[in-house]
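anyone seen this seq b4? input:
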Amino acid sequence: MKKLLLFTLIAAFLLVSLGFASAASTESVVGVGCDPGLTTIGGTIYQNNNLADVISGSNVQVTCYDTNGNFTASTTSDSSGNYHVTFNETSCNFGDDITVLAQKNSLTGQNDGSVNFGPFRIGCLTLNVGIINVPLVPEFGLTMGIMTVLSAVTAFLVIRKR
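predicted toks r here
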């Protein structure tokens, strides 16, 4: 299932990039030159580890750690739980590390990855792609955190007495 989703997402990015490539190569013919390359980061926001349980409308923040600095872009996941953001290649390039944070209501999640597909060169366009899926889990407040620690300590003491 994950490989099918990954393949579908890459195919969609490549199909979309064909339109960019034709526009970019037309510009180079008239002497304007090539635009900088693009880096697209995308994935799916879902609940726990179930890719079928997608979460739409979650706030997504993508940070790319490039040698020129850290660059951040934000978006919202669509009705299928998918998100994508685009950086210029000068801000985020092949091999750069990525952190994706997602949040909706009391669900939060974070996942790390890298720009690991590319660079694809189509005419004048260079495209880099990173695919990072993020599982959201319920956020525990201070009360739940204290209760968890106390129950762990209690369980330890009970087991130790035996």
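DSSP finds two helices and nine strands in the chain. Strands lie at 38-47, 59-66, 69-76, 82-88, 97-104, 107-114, 117-122, 125-131, 134-138. kinda curious what u guys think
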